[in-house]
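REQUEST ID: PR-0412
SUBMITTED BY: lab tech R.K.
PRIORITY: routine
TASK: structure prediction, single protein chain
INPUT:
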Amino acid sequence: MKLILTGATGFIGAEVLRQCLLNPSITSLVALTRRPLSVENPKLTTIIMNDFTSYTDEVIQQLAGAESCIWALGGRGGTTADLRRVEVDYTMAAATAFTTSLAPMLPERKKFRFVYLSGMISETNQEKPLWYAQNARRLKGEVENRLAELGQHSNVLETYMVKPGMVLAKDSGYMASNPLVAVVMGNVKLDELAAVMVETALSGNRKQTLEYNDLQAQGRILTHKESCCSISKT
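STATUS: complete
OUTPUT:
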């Protein structure tokens, strides 16, 4: 399968990138990025994007044949307008472009999958009063709403929302130094989160919205399978 990835230089995106390159089911990976990657691999193609709201014919040609996208690109502060541009405008421009230009190229009855990395505290109810991180939570919630609507009105697109809480390094336990914080924030291990995102891009998921407990449960199974396969090959 040919797959598209954004956010490959981030904490989560880098692990998704690593797992994609190791996965034999993924034969081609195209990373849309703002700067060159340090990783080199025969399966990897990097496209430097100066504007994530514009998908030229040249870019679409390089993406042709892709069946899924893992969107792990997110904002890192700045003004409200800057955050909205990255969180909402970039994401929806890509989802719309892939739906109109890439999905129709797929075999009949096959749908393009768009896997969106959101967060546990995102808020889809845009009228709900929020006491902290209002902008970021509402913006991610808006994207979830718009992606869900886009998928509902399309016969060539499936959308999935991934909503982890606190993401821990691969060698960490599920309990942080403060157990209460660990429970409230819904800890998920990095490798397990990435495994669920990759598997969803490859095969879909029975749930459209994946909360932290879904990510924990599915991630444990997937990483256990991967570990067993690695042991059997040695």
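NOTES: The first strand starts at residue 2 and ends at 6.
REVIEWED BY: pending
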